[in-house]
Automatic annotation (TrEMBL):
Organism: Physcomitrium patens (Spreading-leaved earth moss)
Name of protein: Sulfite oxidase
This enzyme's EC code(s): 1.8.3.1
Obligatory cofactor(s): Mo-molybdopterin
Enzyme category, top tier: oxidoreductase
Pathway the protein takes part in: Sulfur metabolism; Energy metabolism; sulfur metabolism
Length: 350
């Protein structure tokens, strides 16, 4: 059985800065659980703590509320371009496994245990961990979330409580959390140890040594052309507007977005649009606002094209990190962290 997974069309992804719940991508490794009654729900905190805690939803909501604007991105975003190169095990994602929202922080902890049942875990729930230091650094904005874009978190996205770990691959933002374990060790389960890791291109399923690589955390610098779509037909001499997103992991900013309309021979700089000030959102004026976890939307308008042509985008982050030109350099058997230059073909009418 295939769990519920959904990717929005790229053409709608960048039409607003915050991604509406109805188009927000969904990634599930097991069936979406039917969650217990919120009045009986308790979040258990256990492990290396003096006393285990059982926290009601009401109690969690009474804690100070934080808003963080963050982009969630699946490590498998753009996997399809990797599987086109060589067969890959994993969902075939285009470049739409990404979305931006703002959410609410309630605490900071280590191993998040869900209540969904995953085949890969032999029917046990999904779980993942982040380092204690990361979870407890206020600047890292790790959240226990009960609202998304000002609304109660939906079932698909983790109701009643999920983690959001900004700047980090989506896999660590565990949904439907039942238990938080403060542990001496990194999570020893499948998705931490045998899945979201990046291997060199020459490693295959018959010689993969899972313990040789660390569990992925930050996602790398990424950019995608969302409009127009791949394969559109344009007459030579016509003028086209380009729109897309760029996002850097680990809280880094987007320094530059470059576009080429002749497959990388010559480059133009795209216009980076201002990030949506969270103050513009109703009622949240006084809250914390750290925009660096969220994507940058960009545009380049009125570009005259000679068709057919290949249009390419690549971005540079605030640490000077760049994207690899070709998928060959970063191809890996799990198809994760594909951030090679994003290309679309523009066809001429026949
Ligand atoms: N949490 C649980 N409990 N089960 C899951 O399958 N998938 C993870 C993460 N949290 C998952 C989970 C992955 S791989 C991603 S990319 C994000 O959730 C996706 O979050 P979304 O569905 O809200 O977009
Ligand atoms: Mo993911």
């Amino acid at each position: 059985m295939q769990p519920f997974n959904a990717e929005p069309p790229l053409s709608v992804l960048t039409t607003s800065y915050l991604t509406n719940e109805d188009i927000f991508y969904a990634r599930n490794h097991g069936p979406v659980p039917i969650f217990p009654d919120p009045t009986t729900y308790n979040l258990i905190v256990t492990g290396y703590v003096p006393n285990s805690l059982s926290l009601s939803l009401e109690f969690l909501k009474s804690l100070p509320k934080y808003l963080v604007m963050a982009t969630l991105q699946c490590a498998g975003n753009r996997r399809r371009e990797m599987s086109d190169k060589r067969k890959i095990r994993g969902l075939s994602w285009g470049p739409g496994a990404i979305g931006t929202d703002f959410t609410t922080r309630k605490g900071k902890h280590v191993e998040f245990v869900s209540c969904d049942m995953c085949e890969e875990e032999d029917g046990l729930p999904y779980r993942a961990s982040i380092p204690m230091l990361h979870a407890t650094t206020p600047e890292a904005d790790v959240l226990l979330v009960y609202e998304m874009n000002g609304k109660v978190l939906s079932r698909d996205h983790g109701y009643p409580i999920r983690a959001v770990v900004p700047g980090v691959i989506g896999a660590r933002s565990v949904k439907w959390i039942e238990t938080i374990i403060i542990s001496k060790y990194e999570c020893q389960f499948f998705f931490q140890q045998k899945d979201y890791k990046m291997f060199p291109p020459w490693i295959r399923w018959n010689n993969v040594n899972w313990s040789s690589q660390r569990a992925l955390m930050d996602f790398p610098i990424q950019s995608v052309i969302c409009e127009p779509g791949d394969g559109v037909v344009v007459k030579s001499g016509d003028v086209v507007d380009f729109y897309g997103y760029a996002v850097a992991g680990g809280g880094r900013g987007i320094e530059r977005v470059d576009i080429s309309i002749n497959n990388g021979k010559k480059w133009l700089e795209a216009v980076r649009l201002p990030k949506l000030p969270i103050e513009a959102q109703r009622g949240y004026k006084d809250d914390l606002h750290r925009p660096h976890w969220a994507w940058t939307l960009w545009q380049l308008r009125f570009v005259k094209l000679e068709t057919p042509c290949i249009v390419v985008v690549k971005a540079v982050d605030s640490s000077g990190n760049v994207q690899p030109a070709s998928v060959d350099e970063i191809w890996n058997l799990r198809g994760v962290l594909n951030n090679c230059w994003h290309k679309i073909r523009i066809n001429a009418p026949c």
